[in-house]
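INTERNAL AUDIT FORM
Audit reference: QA-55
Scope: verify that the stored structure record matches its stored sequence.
Auditor: D.O.
Record contents follow.
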Amino acid sequence: MRDRRSGFEAAAFSLPKGSISDLVKTQYGFHIIQVIDRQVARTQTFDEVKAAIHDQLAQEKSRQEAETVSAQIAEDIAAPATCPSMIWLRSTP
C-alpha cells in the first residue's frame, strides 16, 4: 500500500526555498505548501535536546503521580469507612 503522505512530502521536498506549491491532495484534504527555509537533516546533540527531554520526563512523572493520587481518591470514595476524614464525619452528630 502506498504511503498517503508521500504526495505531500514529495511536493514539500521538491520545492525550492521561497516557493509555493500548487494544490496538494492528501487523505486529510487539500494543502498549499510554502517553503520558507531548508535545513540539512542532522542528529541533534544531547545539549540541544536536554531541556526538551527534561520537560517531557517531568510531565510524564507528574501525570503518573496525578494518576496515583486520583486512584487513591477513588479508592477512598469507594470505601468511606477506611478514609480517616470520612470516619470522623460519621462520628459527628
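Auditor finding: record pair retrieved intact. The mean pLDDT is 85.
Action required: none
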